[in-house]
Structure formats: C-alpha cells, structure tokens
Design a protein that fits this description.
With 669 residues, this protein is mainly β. The protein has three domains: 86 residues, Immunoglobulin-like (Sandwich); 471 residues, Maltoporin, Chain A, CATH 2.40.170; 97 residues, no CATH class. It contains eight helices and 32 strands. The protein has a 13-stranded antiparallel β-sheet with strand order 15-16-17-18-19-20-21-24-25-28-29-30-31. Strands 3-2-4-5-7 form a five-stranded mixed β-sheet, with no helix packed on it. Strand 24 and strand 25 form a beta hairpin. The protein is elongated, with a radius of gyration of 29 Å.
Length: 669
C-alpha cells in the first residue's frame, strides 16, 4: 500500500468483506506497507481501506480461489483530492507467486459443462497433463487395483492424493477415491500437476484439492432430471449378439443452501439418486462360443461349474445415492466452525468389474459400496498476522464384491474368452478412517510461515480369498479341448485379515516473496507410516521441497521446483502378503511343475482330468523360515507372472529379512 508519490503507508487497516455472508476480516499493513490475509475462505470479496488523511478506498469483485494468491497494489489518494477511490479493474488471473503447476476448475465450469456420468472427478481431466487410466480387466489370474481413474504424466493412478476440504478422501485399499460428491455441492477444484509444497504428502503422483460449497444469506437451490433410453443409442458394431441391448437410466437430484441465522450460521445440502437397468453384450467370437458349449455339453470336465458360455445379452443394473450436508457457524468474530456429513451408497449388478468384451457373463460380477464420513474444521484468526486451522474426520467404507459364478475355477483361453469364477472378485472389506491435522500460519514481513502435522489411522478388516479357487490358462482353443493348460495357479492361506496402519506427517514451509516478480518456497516434510507387526518400518522419509516462481513480465511466469516424495503402501498389497504368509501357490507350465513348497503334488499327464477341476486338497501349513528361498522362487515365477504377483511375493520377503527390502526396491523399481 502506498500513496500517489510512491511512499509506503504503514499501520493501515485493510478490511476484506464478503457481501454474500456479511463477514469480514481485518488486517494491518507492516512498516513496508505490506499486508497479507492468509487462509481466506474461497469467495468474492470487497476490499476497503480507510486511513486518516486519505480518501476511502474501495475495490469490489476480488475473487479468492483455492490455493491462489491475489496481488493488490493499493494507491491511496489524499483526502483533499477525492471523496472516495473506487477501483473496478480485476487483478491478473496469472498468479506470479505460485511455484507449483496448478489448474483450477471454478464453479462456472462445474455448473455449465455437461458431465454424462455425473462423476465430479471427471472435471480433473480438464487439467493439462492429466489423462484417464485404463480400467484393469482382472483376467489372466490377477487381482486388479482400480486406482483413481486418471494419471498425472503417466504416473500410477493409485499414487494420487485426493482431499475434500483439506482432509483425505483416498481409498487406502485400492488407491482410488472414497466418498462421491454431487457436482451441485462442489465449489471448485485445484489440480496440482507438479511441484507440491511441504504441506502435502503421502503420495507420489498428483494432488486434487476440492472445496465444497457453503450457504450464504440468500436462499439458493437447484434441481435437475436426467433420463436416457437405449432406443436412441446406436448398436455397438463389435457385439456378436443380434439386435441392440436395452437400457434405461434415470437420475434426479437437488441442492439447497441458505442461512440458519443470518450473518452467522449457514447450510448447504445436495442429494442425487440414480437407477438404471439394461443389458450388455460381449465380443466373444460366436464360433468359439459354439465350440466350447458343444464340448462342455458332452460332460467334459465335470468339476467345472460353468457349463455354457452366454450367447445372449446379460442383465445389468445400478442404483446409487449421493448425499451431503454442510454447516458453517461463526462462533466468534475470529473463530469459525465447519461440519460436513457425506453419504454414498452404490450398488452395481452384473457388470461391476471384469467388463472386458472377451469376458463371459459368468466371470463378471456385482458390487456394493457404502461410504459415511463426518468431517469438520475449526479456524481461528489470531490477530492480523496468524491463523490456526484444526481439521478432523471420521469415515468408514464398506465394500463387497460378488462374482456371477460363485464356484471356481477361472478358465482363460488367451485372446478368445475368459469364463468361470474369476481369480479375484469375491471379497468383503471395511475401512475405518480417523484423521486429525493442524496448521499454524504466520506472516512475518514478506515471509509466510506454515508449520503443521497430521495423523491418519486406518483400520482394515477384510476377507479377500483372491486366487483360492484357482485359474487355468490355455494358450489356444485346441489346448483347452485337449485339457492341456500352459499354467495353473492357485493360492492358499487365511483370507481374513484385521490390521491397522497409522500415518504421521509433519512439515515446515516458508513462502518468501523476495520481490514482486520473484517468489521462493522452501520447506521440509517428514512422513512415517506405521505398518503391521512383521513388516520393516522405513523411518528415513525426509522430503525437502524447493519451489521458484519468477515473473519477468505480467504476461508469463517461469516456475521450477525440486522435491522428494514418498508414496504410501496400498493396503491390498499388505493384505496379500499377510493372508498368503506362508505362501502356497500351485503353478503349472508346459514343462515340469514349479512349486513353492515341496509338499505340493507333482504334475500329472493331464492336470484337469487328474484333479477333477477344481477340487485340489489344501496342504497343511508349513512355515518356511528361509527368506532367500522364497526370493529365488519369486524371481523364477515372475518370469511369466504379472507384476502384481511379483509385488506381493516380494512383500512377503520383506516380512523375513530387512536386507531383502533393499533387494525388492532395486528389482521392482
């Protein structure tokens, strides 16, 4: 802040007023005429300045977006020259002090852009460098992890971090997101592609920050209705069934917000429900289907539960409910409380997973997912220089997967068809999340210091018998008819797990505005993930973070940064290591049998006829105390197994010896 001659004006009071809620924050300029209002709520503000000897200053329509720093150059005119100075020009949308590469999706785009799926995460794809990740099919005897559905610059989709109102919303089991929000209650997005500050941790991919809408003094509501009928859809040219599948979809919802107590307490709520029913076809060659059906009709492989490949359309259905409510209350002039409850209930029948066109209806399945989350924050303004922010949440997720064919095994004929009970798909799990975080921000001259920490405890209870009903892999249709599989795979162990994982994180960050054109971010972060007993604990997770933003002209900004990032453990991998420890895995190739345990039977001339598929007796558990032996077997098998199997086998090695952990890192990465 300065006068018309360029001299700075210290000790001036600056008021930022939100006309929608009639709430204000007042800060004071320092000796250099500099002021900063940190941790300001997202919204549109009016800036007012009144100083003795100067005309009142007013600037309306200043938009504060998520993660953005708005720079204002305020020039006060002498009182004798003007009665009031009103500025209508808006500051530049280019943030010269932002050292990270970020994209913001504002409320206007959320409201106006069409989203057929009504999935609020689809807006993330508007950011440059972000693309959708392929959906894993789950065939060929593997356990797929869904991930978040998008990837940043080719990084793993399960390594992203998603937060809502500053609190984690990650599914720690699969690396995907948890609670789904209606787009009606989403205020805006911030997508961080590259260069995270020390405040963020627990992920090596991108970061998505979401702010939910708050009520104002004006009552506002929206309602919508969406309907779709398959009669207007074109026929899929790759489907082998005749005709078009039927499909009907209906989705309706509303949102409402307003004041409970004017100028003090506000609410906002949203509800959506969807119902759809239809049919789905496949891309399986009709000749392959008729050959297999005729072969199985002769009574071949009596132990195989699936006796026929589906030749007609298969029924599918979905029912989803999304509900959220938010309450904002101004406890005192400087203290604000926020409480939010979200609920999601999603049921998908017939096509919830394994939706590849070459997968028969018997190998597909249904899912049920229920999410409940209660979160809140307590924000206190400590004078004009400091802000205290406490956030907390308690959430739970219950997920159930059921395959259409309840009895195994899976039959996979390479490139032609997959049918039977799939290798993965029958399981149930519950995640309980408890999180608390605290951040203290303080302005000191041109420095904005932040220090804080977070504790996130997740308890997983699961029953995931992936691979327990075995899978037969055939190289060709002729091999299947001859009963000559190229591989046989079956897992044994205790499918029930119950363990907690607690993550701790702390950081210190300095946002230093050296000059109007130059900003430097310096920070350091430490993370510790406390794993279940038996796993090695990695304690040297120190993450330095450096960011630079240089704006030689108002039209462009040069950004650079350096940082070390530590990814979190996906709980699905820990689950596999625990339930299959000790490991029993039957594995057949065209040559001699490779087995991980000498007690398993050797290969007969025809594994399918000899074992009357799939009834193989489970061997008695024998503890193998030689970790080096397990490592050698894992390396041999992984020559023809997928990477996910390598991952959990190597995790088992980590249970045995700390020296093998370094070997795992060198091999996997």
């Amino acid at each position: 802040m300065s006068d018309t001659s360029g001299a700075v004006i210290p000790n001036s009071k600056v008021t930022l007023h939100n006309p929608l809620t009639n709430q204000s924050r007042t800060v004071t300029t320092d000796e250099q005429g500099f002021f900063r209002a940190a941790q300001l709520a997202v919204g549109t503000y009016e800036v007012r300045v009144e100083q003795t000897g100067f005309a009142p200053y007013r600037r309306a329509g200043v938009v504060a977006s998520l993660g953005q720093t708005v720079h204002l150059d305020i020039v006060l005119a002498p009182a004798s020259a003007a009665e009031q100075v009103t500025v209508n020009a808006q500051p530049s949308s280019l943030d010269p002090s932002q050292s990270s590469v970020v994209s913001t999706v504002d409320q206007e785009r959320i409201e106006e852009l069409p989203v057929r799926s009504r999935n609020y995460l689809d807006f993330v794809l508007l950011a440059p460098g972000v693309s959708s990740s392929p959906i894993p099919s789950g065939a060929s005897g593997s356990t797929p992890l869904t991930g978040s559905g998008f990837t940043f610059g080719g990084l793993r989709s399960r390594s992203n971090n998603l937060s809502i109102d500053g609190l984690d919303n990650d599914d720690e089991y699969a690396g995907s997101s948890r609670t789904e929000l209606s787009p009606e209650i989403v205020q805006e997005f911030q997508v961080v592609n590259n260069g995270l500050s020390a405040e963020s941790g627990g992920a090596s991919g991108g970061s998505i920050n979401i702010i939910t809408r708050s009520g104002t003094n004006a009552i506002h509501g929206d309602a919508f209705l969406f309907a779709q009928d398959g009669a207007f859809n074109a026929r899929d040219p790759f489907e082998t069934e005749s005709g078009k599948p039927s499909f009907r979809r209906f989705r309706a919802g509303f949102a409402l917000g307003g004041p409970v107590i004017r100028d003090k307490t506000f609410y906002y709520s949203a509800l959506e429900r969807e119902h759809n029913r239809g049919q789905i076809g496949s891309d399986i060659d009709p000749g392959v289907t008729s050959t297999i059906n005729a072969f199985l009709a002769t009574g071949a492989f009596p132990g195989l539960a699936t006796r026929q490949i589906t030749t007609a359309f298969s029924p599918i259905a979905r029912a989803e409910t999304e509900a959220a409510g938010k309450l904002d209350h101004q406890l005192t002039k400087n203290t604000a409380l926020m409480l939010r409850y979200t609920f999601t209930n999603n049921k998908e029948s017939g096509d919830a997973f394994n939706s590849n066109g070459l997968i028969d209806a018997s190998a597909r399945g249904s899912s049920f997912t229920s999410d409940n989350a209660l979160s809140g924050s307590l924000t206190t303004v400590l004078g004009s220089e400091a802000v205290s922010d406490l956030r907390f949440q308690a959430a739970t997720r219950h997920a159930v997967l059921r395959t259409n064919e309840p009895v195994g095994p899976e039959i996979d004929i390479a490139g032609l068809v997959t049918f039977g009970r799939p290798y993965a798909g029958n399981g149930e799990r519950r995640e309980n999340h408890y999180q608390a975080s605290y951040t203290y921000s303080r302005t000191w001259g041109k420095h904005l210091w932040k220090v804080g920490g977070t504790v996130n405890r997740i308890r997983l209870r699961a029953d995931v018998p992936d691979g327990f009903d075995s899978v037969y892999l055939f190289g060709s249709l002729g091999d299947f008819l001859a009963g000559n599989p190229s591989q046989f795979r079956q897992a044994f162990g205790n499918s029930n797990v119950d363990f907690p994982v607690t993550s701790f994180g702390g950081f210190v960050q300095d946002h230093w505005s050296i000059a109007r054109q130059l900003t430097v971010d310096l920070g350091v972060r430490y993370d510790l993930e406390r794993l279940p007993s038996g796993f090695n604990q990695d304690t040297n997770n120190v993450s330095p973070r450096i960011g630079l933003a240089w704006s030689p002209s108002p039209r462009w900004v040069f950004r650079a940064g350096y940082g070390v990032f530590f990814d979190r453990y996906v709980l699905a991998n820990l689950t596999r290591a625990i339930e299959k420890n000790p490991v029993f895995l039957r594995q057949h190739r065209a040559g001699p049998l490779l087995c991980l345990h000498p007690g398993l039977p050797r290969r007969s001339s025809n594994p399918i006829r000899a074992w009357r598929l799939p009834t193989a007796n489970k061997p008695a558990p024998v503890r193998n105390t030689c970790s080096q032996r397990i490592l050698r077997c894992a390396l041999t098998i992984c020559l023809f197994m997928d990477l996910s199997c390598l991952e959990h086998l190597m995790l088992i090695c980590c249970l045995r010896s700390s020296s093998l952990l370094r070997t795992r890192l060198a091999l996997v990465f």
